[in-house]
Every structure is written in C-alpha cells, then in structure tokens.
Amino acid sequence: MAAKIVIIAIFTTLFGVMRIVIQRVKRASVTIEGKIHSSIGKGLLVLTGIEEADTTYDVEWLASKAVNLRVFDDSNRVMNLSAVDTASELMIVSQFTLHASTRKGNRPSYIKAARPEKAVPLYEEFIMRTGELLGRKPATGIFGAMMEIELVNDGPVTIIIDSKSRE
C-alpha cells in the first residue's frame, strides 16, 4: 500500500493535476466591480484550477467529463442525464485556490497553481472545448479578476474531479 501511495505522489508531482469543482445550480452569476458580468439559469457552475504541468490532454478530458457528467434527474428522479442531454447552461470560472496546499502552517500556499502565462491559454482552451462539446458558448468569469460568485446550489450536488486520479 505504501508503494502505491508513493507512486501516486510522484505521478502527481511530475505531471500536475488540473482540477474542477462542479456544482449543479438553479442559477449562478459572476459580478465584477459591482456589475454582473455573466449569469446562467439551471446548469453547472464549474470552478477551474490549473497547475503548471497541465496540458491540452487534461483540458480535453475534463471538458468532456464536465459536459457529459450525468448529474441531472431523468423522469424517474434518478441522476441519469448530462448538461448536453438537458440543454443546461454552463458557467466556467477560474479559481487558482483549488490548488491550495495547507500542509505547513495555517496560511495556504498556491505554489502548485499555474502562472497566468501558462494558465490563461489552458483556461481559454477549456472554455472553447466545453462550448464545442455543449453546442453553445459557456458563461465565464474573467481570469485573474476579483469576482463575486453567487449561486443557488441545486440538490446540493457538488463534485470534485481532477485530471490525474480520474475520479
């Protein structure tokens, strides 16, 4: 068991972990400098964190997972439908704090989060790819902006997925 944990730790250290937090929402909005930048009705709010070692492969896998994840109820009230199946809306917001490390002390470290020159192109690619898979452009925040995110969680349904553990 210890060998497996060491191998996983080495793998994630070498290759990074793009991480998303998906929340099924009744509605969500992003406000920047006191003005609503974007909003959605029923759908998914996807908080997105990118590490320095992330690649297009991570983007592709997570974009497909986000739009095809079956978290919406079918006629039997079973979560069996995806955002694609239900024509649900999607909002993508960058959030580097998803890669916070709290291993030492009480002040989080964000050293694992990608710098903007790496993160912005991957964030934009994630937006583009989810839009292609969904069939319409998702709502977004603005990378690096101080944002106020309002949401009404539906369920609640909140799922954390990363591109390395594939969970």
Q: Your description of this structure?
A:
- The chain is an alpha/beta fold and 167 residues long.
- It has a single domain (16-162), classed as D-tyrosyl-tRNA(Tyr) deacylase (D-tyrosyl-trna(Tyr) Deacylase, Chain: A).
- It has four helices and eight strands, in the order αβββαββαβαββ.
- It has helices spanning 2-15, 56-68, 83-86, 116-134, and strands spanning 19-32, 35-40, 43-49, 72-73, 79-81, 89-94, 139-140, 147-162.
- The strands form two sheets. Strands 1, 2, 3, 6, 7 and 8 form a six-stranded mixed β-sheet that branches.
- α2 (56-68) runs parallel beside α4 (116-134).
- The longest helix is centred in the last third of the chain and has 19 residues, at 116-134.
- It is globular and about 45 Å long.
Quickly describe the structure.
The protein is α/β, with parallel strands linked by helices. The chain is built from four helices and eight strands; from the N terminus they run αβββαββαβαββ. The longest helix has 19 residues, at 116-134.
